[in-house]
């Protein structure tokens, strides 16, 4: 099962990605969590100890490694490099494991303008498609709002795109954008999780903006989740109530995917 989590900034993508990853791991699945957001913080939400967290170097920042694999010399913008770098050993060598979740932190790509293809970009893109196409494990990707960097082919192979929204117009707008973009690059199904819900009206507001069968469920606003963020704990460990809500969402996802 390959899942990509997306949505507007601050809606709860990382919170949800971490809880879903922990849940699959707890159920006995082998899980790879991919931090594909340049503003990487999935490790903290997964409950990684500070020493491990501090030791994480995103793949894109391993300059020598990137240039090794792509045969590009450092800073060689616009020059020749390999478009098919070797990536199959990366998950094994660079994942950090904790609580049964293996984490891969991708990092930022300085794209220097749209349409740019640089060695880091090629390597990350290839790594993403490798994870999605070749990996037998559960892969949960914590993404930026956009999904275009996955590309056609890879996007088609993701089992579910989940857009996290809040009960407000702005995050729903991002959901609509993702859906349109998803259509363009061959994504089969886009699901929605409503987060930071306070009451039934919030639920109804979100549902009224979705098509039938798109909603996976709701996560209620919970002070425990905020507190876990303040104390560098995993929300999975601190809030039973939220965990139960994520469990129901996971079950709905499995059901809709016939798993
Ligand atoms: N259900 C919730 N209840 C309360 N606070 C939440 C909830 N979900 C997320 N948050 C808080 O909202 C903030 C943003 O969440 P985060 O997961 O980092 O969002 P994103 O990854 O989409 O930017 C964090 O401080 C987080 O603790
Ligand atoms: Mg995030």
TrEMBL record:
Question: InterPro entries attached here?
Answer: CobQ/CobB/MinD/ParA_Nub-bd_dom, CooC, P-loop_NTPase, ParA/MinD_ATPase
Keywords noted in UniProt: ATP-binding, Nucleotide-binding
Chain ranges passing through the membrane:
none
**Keyword Nucleotide-binding included in the entry's annotation:** yes
Q: Which domain of life is it from?
A: Bacteria
Indicate the segments forming the CobQ/CobB/MinD/ParA nucleotide binding domain, all copies: 4-233
What is this protein called in UniProt?
Carbon monoxide dehydrogenase accessory protein CooC
The lineage, from the top, is: Bacteria, Bacillati, Bacillota, Clostridia, Peptostreptococcales
């Amino acid at each position: 099962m390959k899942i990509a989590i997306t949505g507007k900034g601050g809606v709860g993508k990382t919170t949800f990605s971490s809880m879903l990853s922990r849940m699959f791991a707890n159920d006995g699945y082998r899980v790879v969590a991919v931090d594909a957001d340049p503003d990487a913080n999935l490790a903290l939400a997964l409950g990684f100890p500070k020493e491990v967290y501090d030791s994480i170097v995103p793949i894109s920042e391993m300059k020598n490694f990137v240039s090794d694999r792509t045969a590009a010399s450092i800073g060689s913008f616009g020059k020749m490099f390999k478009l098919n770098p070797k990536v199959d050993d990366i998950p094994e060598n660079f994942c950090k494991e904790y609580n049964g979740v293996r984490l891969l932190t991708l990092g930022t790509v300085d794209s220097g303008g749209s349409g740019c293809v640089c060695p880091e970009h090629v390597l990350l893109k290839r790594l993403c498609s490798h994870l999605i196409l070749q990996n037998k494990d559960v892969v949960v990707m914590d993404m930026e709002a956009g999904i275009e960097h996955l590309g056609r082919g890879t996007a088609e192979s993701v089992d579910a795109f989940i857009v996290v929204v809040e009960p407000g117009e702005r995050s729903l707008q991002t959901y609509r954008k993702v859906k349109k973009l998803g259509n363009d690059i061959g994504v089969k199904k886009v699901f929605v999780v409503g987060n930071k819900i306070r009451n039934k009206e919030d639920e109804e507001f979100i549902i009224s903006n979705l098509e039938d069968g798109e909603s996976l469920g709701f996560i209620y606003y919970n002070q425990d989740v905020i507190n876990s963020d303040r104390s560098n704990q995993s929300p999975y460990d601190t809030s039973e109530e939220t965990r139960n809500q994520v469990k129901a969402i996971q079950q709905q996802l499995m059901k809709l995917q016939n798993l």
